Amino acid sequence: MIFLDSVMQQDIKTLKGVGDKTAQELNKLGIFTINDIIHFYPRDYEDWTNVQSIEEVYKSGKRGCIRVKIDSEVKRIFLSKGKTIFKVRGSDGQNNISIIFFNTVYMAISLTRIKNLLLFGTVSKNNFNEYQIYSPKISQNMGIFPIYSQTKNITSLKIKNSVKTALEKVQNSIEETLPSDILEKYNLCSLNFAIKNIHFPENKDKIEKAKRRLIFEEILIWQIGMSKIKNYVKQKTNIKIKKDFSDEFLFLLPFVLTKAQLRVINECTEDMLNTDGLAMSRLIQGDVGSGKTVVAAAVAYNAIKNGYQTAVMAPTEILSNQHYNTFNKIFQGMNINIGLLSGKLKGKKRKNLEDKIKNKEIDIVIGTHALISENLKFANLGLVITDEQHRFGVRQRMKLAEKGKNPHVLIMSATPIPRTLSMMIYGDLDISILDELPPGRKEVKTFCISPQKKERAFKFFKEIIKNGGQGYIVCPLIENSENEMFSTDDYKNTILNETFGGYTSEILHGRLSANEKEAIMKRFSCGEIQILVATTVIEVGVDVPNASIIIIENAERFGLSQLHQLRGRVGRGEKESYCVLISYSGTKDTKRRMQAMCSTNDGFFLAEEDLKIRGPGEIFGNKQHGIVGIKLAKALKDIKVIEDSKKAVREILSGNYLNQKSYQPIKEKIFSLINYAENHITI
Which of 525, 381, 551 is nearest to 464 (CA)? Predict the structure, then answer.
């Protein structure tokens, strides 16, 4: 972004109230300059203008604002280990509520002094069906207040104060980035208005105006950047695929492919046979079990029979091993040499494999990031295949492609993405969709239950284990929390011992080292572990055909796409498989999502439903590491802003407007957004 005043690029420590320690904490959040903190948007808002009744907040299942009159003295309750609860009773005129604080007597006492006040928090009920609210925020003033992502040592309030100071310092120093004709045509507010109201809005309408403007710009910049990368990737290639060997490959297969698989193989083949000499750059997007690997094998067969090598990159050692075994089965009897290159392969064995690759004694090389090491040389790399694209950024894909002379690139993803967003997210790729499952594949039977039926689910789970099966239990958290969500620690400390004593179990989560995770998954794959309790790290994992049941705690906390990916861990063998969703919420949206999960195994349908209900949060979330600069679109609900932005992109590119002076700020942002652009992309 271009600014009129260099103050925007000043170190965050130049702000009043920001010392070395505060700056260090802000740095952890990616905030180094005044510009950074101004564009560090709130993750949520507390709406203290929408005062609801106690009953309304309780039924919503969400945090809300209530007005109460305090009508009791402070009651002190002593607990074990020196903990104390302070309880005060209040009323909204219709219902009574207990207001509870832990170890903070001054908060409880302050309530009795004010008498009438606003509380903000989550309302629940105790065992006696009485309303209660734990550690609510307190205020006498109405308003809409920003909530920021924070660290252990810096609060949202501290960040809020720093943002306020920063905005006061820059005042009107923010230069507009969008041309006036774009602002007018798409009814967008100014950047100054947007920045002010995204942080400190006067009302909800102004938040929405600010969000729409900023999201529009995020998507506009992203799509233009992707189109430029696509132009770079689709360069002329010296790889000459002169003959189509697809029929020969299909004849050698011991099974028949689906119509969708045949269509996608044909699309890839046409790309490689392209008479204009451009390299293929295509994404195969298919649901779990749709047969992406055999399609990739068919494309690899064409490259190999035309005299070229293929590289297949997977995100983990376990997945690369799985691909190695699968490719060996597919190519059995076809006289194709396959090598496995992992980070664990050392010394003479590694040197021997690298020499074979360099001398073209290996046709297909499968591995992890080891494939992009400087020492590895290919004789004539003609095709690059990457699995689970969202685990690799644009830079990594290009780095592997640079091992050859503009080879063809094929990417596989098992993450269904709504068609509305596919072209935006994968704007640098052509897209093929596998929308048909092979015949005979069993659907995973899915049930949603209340916590009261959990013991029955556990009993069913144990029956499957007793009969030689294996299963997963997924928790949203690693450690215990006050927000009543289940954690892997809950299972480790109590549930596994009390409910699943005598069974072999293990805990798997993201804080374990890569080697520890690999070792646990390997033991689970080999059948040494009967019950694997994990967080969502298993979302993209290996095939364990013997695993036939998965229980997902706090299912309401996950999006449909993520639940579907987790469900995909089972149903990979011949056994009947089951997914049990335990939901602790009765809201309308939750019921709708759980019903959708139980009614279909179609990942694309579920992705569309998720988009309608929750917005594209997961799609623009941490899973898409390649999407730099997408901040607000995570919470997007109005899909029309995407359509408007796409329309603007088409107009800008078709009219070659980027060379005009009024479009220079956009051009600058593209360079800063796409890391690889400065060296490889000409705008």
Answer: 551
Check residue 520 and give its pLDDT: 92
Distance between CA atoms of residues 434 and 423, nearest Å: 16
Amino acid at 141: N
Q: How many CB atoms lie within 10 A of CB 570?
A: 26
* pLDDT tens digits for range 255-266: 899 999 999 999
Q: Which residues of 603-625 are buried (b: 16+ CB within 10 A; e: fewer)?
A: bbbbbbbbbebbbbbbbbeebbe
The residue among 428, 362, 418, 420 whose CA lies nearest residue 389 is 428
Q: Computed from CA positions of residues 325, 329, 333, 335, in that sequence, does the dihedral angle turn out positive or negative?
A: negative
pLDDT at 31: 92
Q: Are 357 and 384 in contact (CB under 8 A)?
A: no
In 3D space, the residue among 84, 81, 82 whose CA is nearest the CA of residue 105 turns out to be 84
Q: Alpha carbon of 371 to those of 68, 151, 366, 401, 574: distances in Å?
A: 63, 36, 8, 10, 34
Predicted local distance difference test score (pLDDT) of residue 554: 93
From the CB of residue 643, how many other CB atoms can be counted at a distance below 10 Å?
12
Three-state SS for 501-567 is: CCCCEEEECCCCCHHHHHHHHHHHHCCCCCEEEECHHHCCCCCCCCEEEEEECCHHHCCHHHHHHHH
Which amino acid would we find at residue 609? E
Six-digit token pair at 289? 């079990």
Q: How many whole angstroms separate alpha carbon 214 and alpha carbon 1?
A: 13
Could you give the CA distance from residue 570 to residue 566 in angstroms, rounded to a whole number? 8
Q: Supply φ then ψ for residue 184, to 5 degrees.
A: -70, -45
DSSP letters, 124-137, are: EE-TTS-EEEES-E
Coil, helix or strand at residue 12:
helix
| pLDDT score recorded for residue 141 | 80
pLDDT for the residue 428: 61
pLDDT of residue 513: 86
Sequence-distant (6+) residues with CB within 8 A of 628 are: 673, 674, 675
State how far Cα 260 lies from the chain centre: 27
Tell me which amino acid residue 355 is.
Answer: D
CA distances from 299 to 304, 371, 673 (A): 9, 19, 33
The parts of the chain modelled with pLDDT lower than 70 are 1-5, 172, 229-235, 275, 388-398, 419-428, 440, 481-484, 539-541, 614-639, 672-683
- Reported as a single tens digit per residue, the pLDDT across 334-361 is 999 999 998 788 899 999 999 999 999 9
d(CA 314, CA 389): 9
Query: 645 and 219 in contact (C-beta within 8 Å)?
Result: yes
CA 528 → CA 78, 519, 523, 578, distances in Å? Answer: 46, 11, 5, 21
Closest CA to 559 of 535, 534, 584, 590: 590
Query: Which residues are CB-neighbours of 40 under 8 A, at least 6 positions away?
Result: 29, 30, 31, 148, 159, 163
The phi, psi pair for 77, rounded to 5°, reads -125, 120
Predicted local confidence at residue 637, as pLDDT? 56
C-beta of residue 403 within 8 angstroms of C-beta of residue 372: yes
Burial class, 680, CB count within 10 angstroms (exposed 0-12 / middle 13-18 / buried 19+) = middle
